[in-house]
Amino acid sequence: MHYAALALLAVTMFTAIAYRTAAWTRNAEAAQLTSLPIILVTSAGPMTIRSPTCPPGCGTSCRSR
Fold first, then answer.
1. What is the torsional sign of CA 29, 35, 41, 43?
2. What is the DSSP annotation of 33-53?
3. Taking phi first (over 0 means left), then psi (-120 to 50 degrees means alpha), and beta for anything else, what does residue 27 get?
4. What is the C-alpha to C-alpha distance for residues 56 and 50, in angstroms, rounded to an integer?
5. What is the pLDDT of residues 2-17, one digit of tens each?
6. What is the mean pLDDT of the segment spanning 27-34?
7. Is the pLDDT of residue 48 over 80?
8. What is the C-alpha radius of gyration for the chain, rounded to an integer number of angstroms?
9. CA 35 to chain CA mean position, Å
10. By three-state DSSP, how is residue 58 classified?
């Protein structure tokens, strides 16, 4: 349920950004350049999060590998 709320929030934010970008730019090419920094930041964000090597509750069994 938590992920669904975050996904809905992301869709809402990107929709708002799309409407705002469309109001600022005159053509599709300019809109792509205007949106590029936002797209790069949101694409790089998930790559900075490290996933744990062991799932919670596994103890020390997988850490010795």
1. negative
2. HHHHHHHHHHHHGGGGPPPPS
3. beta
4. 14
5. 888 888 998 898 888 8
6. 83
7. no
8. 19
9. 14
10. coil
